[in-house]
Write a structure and sequence with these properties.
The chain is built from one helix and no strands.
């Protein structure tokens, strides 16, 4: 014993206490590092979730743009169909008018031939 006022085994007890305290500090440091790593993982997870949310928003916006474009294309196709129908009608009306004109011209030719034939038969 190095000191007369110390109890037998006190130094050993103090050493055990220091050893336990050191172990507790080491354990606390280990838990602090684990908590820090968990916080970093949590931050990465939150960032990943935010990236997924942003990607979903971009996809939603792209889908909405595609829907609008499809609707515009459908409206344009409908307008083109109406225009084509109108053009076919106009062509049919033009052909009918041309046929009527051709019939009138044929009637006039027939009339002129009849007049010519009558004039040939009549003496001058």
């Amino acid at each position: 014993m190095s000191n007369d006022h110390t109890l037998p085994g006190a130094d050993e007890h103090a050493e055990q206490h220091r050893s336990k305290a050191e172990s507790a500090r080491d354990e606390a440091e280990r838990f602090r590092r684990l908590a820090e790593e968990a916080l970093q993982v949590s931050d990465l997870h939150r960032e990943a979730l935010e990236s997924v949310r942003q990607e979903r928003e971009r996809l939603r916006e792209t889908g909405e743009a595609a829907r609008i474009a499809a609707e515009d294309a459908r409206a344009a196709a409908e307008s083109a169909r109406h225009a084509a129908t109108d053009a076919v009608r106009a062509t049919a009306e033009t052909l009918a008018a041309t046929l009527e004109q051709m019939k009138a011209v044929e009637e006039m030719r027939k009339t002129l031939r009849d007049i010519r034939d009558v004039n040939k038969l009549e003496p001058n």
